[in-house]
Structure formats: C-alpha cells, structure tokens
User: Which sequence fits this backbone?
C-alpha cells in the first residue's frame, strides 16, 4: 500500500475514518441502517441520481464497498474451494469475516425502497419533471463536497487536472439520448444490468440514467410490476456479475489511490448535474427557462434540496466525531 493510503487525514476528519468499518455493529442499529440503505435504493430508481452519491452522503459508502468486496472474496473462495477439492471451509471463513449486522439491514432497506420507489417516486418524476429535477439538482450540487472532504490530503493542482476531465466524461455520459427497446432479450437485460449496477458503487453515475440510455428503464419497471421472473432473474444475475467484476477494482483504488479516486468521483458528480438541469427537451437537450416567473418554484426546491443534503452531511460528520 502506498504512503497515500497510510497517511493520516488532514481536513477530511472523521469522514475518512469510515474506510475501516467499526467493530461490533449491533442489531440495534439495523433500523437506522435500513433507512439509510433505503435512501440509496430510492436514488437508484430516479434517472440522474446516483445511489453511490447518496451512499457517500449517508456515510455508508466505504463500509458498503468493503462489505461488497468481502462477499465477492467469499464467492471466489467458494468456487476455488470446490474446484480444488478444499471444500467449503475457506468460503465459510470468508463469509464469517463479513459484517452482516451492517450489510443485511442496508441491503434489505435498499431492496424495499427501490421496489416502492419504482412504483411511486419514478412516476412522480415523470409527471413533474421540472420541479423534481430542480430538487435533485440542489441535493447533488451540495453533495459534491463529500468526496472532496474524504480526500486524505488537501486539494491540489493535480487533483484539479484530474477533476476537470472527469466532469467532461460525466457530462457526456448523462447527455446520451435515451434508446427505445420494446422487448429486450434476456442476454441484453443481463449485460445492461451488469453495466448499470456499477453506478451503485460509483458516485456521479446514475444507474437509472444508464438504463435509459440502453432502453431498459421502462422494461425494468414493467417487469417488476408484472412480476416477470425470467426478466428479473436475468437482471439480478447480471447485476451480481457486474458488481463482482468492478467492486474489487474500486476497493483497491480507494485503498491505494484514494486522493485521485475521490477527485474523479467529484468530477463525475459535477458532470452528472447536466441530467438534473430542470429544463430539458424530450431528448435531454438543455433548455433555458421559458420565463422569469417559472424560475422561482424550481429555485426554491433546489435550495430546499441543498439544505436537506447539507444537514445530512453535517449530521453524519457530527455522528462520526462522536463515535471517534
């Protein structure tokens, strides 16, 4: 591990300490963890919002990534143990190392809120796009400070040189026009899920936006409503494979290149604000406000969203300091 990973934090304070999961998570914390995980799941249902961003704001990001990496490791131990005749003991040891009292409530909350949000929040975004995008714009704009605060060192000129192209990449990705796929084949659903799920662990990139670009957002909603088990199964399998393929790389980057990685994540989050600009045409082209009187409502909602996230960041920071 490099010096960057070992050096103590400077101004990032308690947020940095989330890199090492606190020992002894108790089941009494389960309701709060499920609620915070629910916010992450809800974000994944809304185009333009990244679940990884909400995980950062709620203080779950590092621990979620660590847990996912441990589960992936256990899966690899299971396959290798069976293939090499070592049995299930290596996988069992790996599974016992996972902080299930943290991970299970978060995952349950994510799943429940995601399913509810697909039926409630997502249609609300479709019926009131300007107002809802304005609300989310304010939320994500303030959330950009989170990865910057999680840097182990102060922001440097090199970090700015990395952040700017990341903004461009994020801006380009969320600006791709949505595709239309009436009846996607199961292999396409598998591949699409494998790609979109990475937005769960990559702040600034919305899984729902990627599904829109691939033409899978509406089919996924329909499959959940119709309880299409074949479709949902292919999607779930693709999500597992995609997450397992990417999470170890991101975990390594956060351990060994945290400063650079956080600069990239902050840039992606800034670029993703394009998808949340309140006034857009049908192909996600950016428009100017149609009139001065139409700005007040969205502006107030943006301020409200920014205030909510700002309060959440302050609460999470205070909570971390109390447990330090």
Assistant:
């Amino acid at each position: 591990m490099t010096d960057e990973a070992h050096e103590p934090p400077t101004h990032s304070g308690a947020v940095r300490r989330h890199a090492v999961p606190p020992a002894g998570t108790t089941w009494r914390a389960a309701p709060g963890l499920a609620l915070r995980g629910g916010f992450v799941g809800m974000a994944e249902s809304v185009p333009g919002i990244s679940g990884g961003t909400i995980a950062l704001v709620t203080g779950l990001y590092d621990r979620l990534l660590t847990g996912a990496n441990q589960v992936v490791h256990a899966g690899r131990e299971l396959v290798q143990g069976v293939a090499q005749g070592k049995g299930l003991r290596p996988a069992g040891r790996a599974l016992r190392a996972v902080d299930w009292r943290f991970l299970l409530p978060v995952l349950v909350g994510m799943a429940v809120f995601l399913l509810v949000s697909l039926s409630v929040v997502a249609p609300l975004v479709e019926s009131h796009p300007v107002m809802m995008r304005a609300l989310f714009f304010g939320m994500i704009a303030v959330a950009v400070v989170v990865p910057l605060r999680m840097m182990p060192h102060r922001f440097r000129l090199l970090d700015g040189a990395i952040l700017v192209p990341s903004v461009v990449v994020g801006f380009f990705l969320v600006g791709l026009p949505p595709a239309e796929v009436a009846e996607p084949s199961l292999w396409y659903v598998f591949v699409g899920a494998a790609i979109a799920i990475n937005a769960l662990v990559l702040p600034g990139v919305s899984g729902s936006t990627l599904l829109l670009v691939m033409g899978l957002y509406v089919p996924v909603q329909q499959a959940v409503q119709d309880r299409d088990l074949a479709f949902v199964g292919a999607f779930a399998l693709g999500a597992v494979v995609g997450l397992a393929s990417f999470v170890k790389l991101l975990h390594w980057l956060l351990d060994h290149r945290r400063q650079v990685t956080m600069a990239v994540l902050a840039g992606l989050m800034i670029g993703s604000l394009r998808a949340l600009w309140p006034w857009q045409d049908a192909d996600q082209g950016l428009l100017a406000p149609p009139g001065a009187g139409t700005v007040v409502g969205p502006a107030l909602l943006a301020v409200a969203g920014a205030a909510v996230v700002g309060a959440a960041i302050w609460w999470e920071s205070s909570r971390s300091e109390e447990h330090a």
User: Anything to note?
Assistant: Residues 1-22 have pLDDT under 50 and may be disordered. The two ends are 24 Å apart (CA to CA).
